[in-house]
Amino acid sequence: MKEVKNKQILFRGFITGVPKETDMELREGTVGLKIPEGIKGALVKNIYLSCDPYMRGRMRENYDSYIPPFSPGSVLKGFGIGRVVESNDEFFKPGDVVSGFTGWEEYSLIENTEQLKKIEVDEKIPLSYHLGLLGMPGFTAYVGFYEICSPKKGDRVFVSAACGAVGQLVGQLAKLHGCYVVGSAGTKQKVDLLMNKFGFDEAFNYKEEKGLVSTMRRYFPEGIDIYFDNVGGPTLDAALLNMRINGRIAICGMISQHSVSSVEGIHNLSALIPKRVKMQGFLQSDHLHLFPQFLDCVSDLYKQGKIAYLEDMHHGLEIAPKAFVGLFSGQNVGKQVVCVSPE
Ligand code: NAP
Question: Which residue lies with its CA nearest to atom 24 of ligand 1?
Fold first, then answer.
């Protein structure tokens, strides 16, 4: 059986605080290019790996959530795109391009093939977009906006982490829906992108504002109808004081709280009552029946030039830990992807 080198990124052990590159390590091993006897699955050569904030949760001991913690000493797992090298699963054949949960390594033996999706390669759309615009983050934007926010034309919409994988699409869908859209992000470059590439009406750098409550009042003198929350913490607290009557808050993520030693309290929840605001957390994975309609809708919008997408591509498996860690200090400009091997 032919053996080839297989670099892997291992998770070293449970962490507290902000993730560091040294929480992961590179191992150089080998892999046989044949599925071992008695195993059903697909051997995949990984092409692109996705860096996603939820992976930080899996690095916590006793992580009690919708997905189990990583095992110390094992290969990191995440969304990826790869090409099937060998398969004894009738649904996949060598050469198929697939997306789904894979390992942070050059080759992965994937046994739970029911979670893999075959990708219809379309030369008008970059393949890696199946991890961003047309993948989990894009789907999160789609279901979060249409299913959770109940948008109406003319609504005033605020999006945090607006230049990221999820946020950039939320803002553009809201614009196409006829809403007034303001985004917050952590650098001038991102603020410029929001205004000039993604067509937001306004954007601000939350790190440079003295008081977020008054900043939001400046952009939303009549209040916010929809707040799409990607960050939690002080931004959520300030938005609560700026909501309009019957406003909606979609709690998508709380990246500002992922790595703090003690979670910051939210003080302004009582504002929900007089304003009759609905605040709802959601998981994209509860809405997967909508995935085909999302794929059609967002692919068409992209091909018609009605939406743009920005990804931040790093090259080489070795750099994946740095790319992942960068999410927590806003180093990524757009969807963070790592290219492991050529398409
Ligand atoms: P992303 O925005 O591409 O990357 C994370 C961004 O968060 C960074 O670039 C940074 O941008 C911002 N950030 C980091 N630390 C921050 C802090 N302390 N305060 C404020 N902003 C901070 O990530 P994404 O993939 O689009 O995910 C966005 C959110 O959606 C995350 O909270 C994620 O967990 C959540 N999510 C939820 C679901 C779901 O099903 N509910 C699915 C996918 C993602 P700045 O430079 O702007 O600070």
Answer: 165
Does residue 142 sit in the same domain as residue 188?
yes
* Ranges of the chain with pLDDT below 70: none
Å from CA of 108 to ligand 1 middle: 27
pLDDT tens, residue by residue, 187-225: 999 999 999 999 999 999 999 999 999 999 999 999 999
CA–CA dist 92, 155 (Å, integer): 45
Q: Note the pTM of the prediction, 2 decimals.
A: 0.97
Atom of ligand 1 nearest to the CA of 166: 26
Residue 192's domain is classified under what CATH number? 3.40.50.720
Within 10 A of 305 (CB to CB), how many other CB atoms are there?
A: 7
Structure tokens at 336: 């963070």
β-bridge mates for residue 339, sequence order: 48, 315
Element (H, E) at 216: helix 212-219
Residues 142 and 118 in one domain: no
CA torsion angle 87 339 171 66 (round to 10): 50
Q: Pick from 287, 332, 65: which is nearest to 193 by CA?
A: 332
- Does the beta carbon of 247 lie inside 6 Å of ligand 1? no
Q: Please tell me what DSSP assigns to residue 70.
A: P
What DSSP designation does 284 have? G
Residue 189 lies in a domain: yes
Q: What is the pLDDT of residue 343?
A: 86
Closest CA to 159 of 214, 213, 200, 215: 200
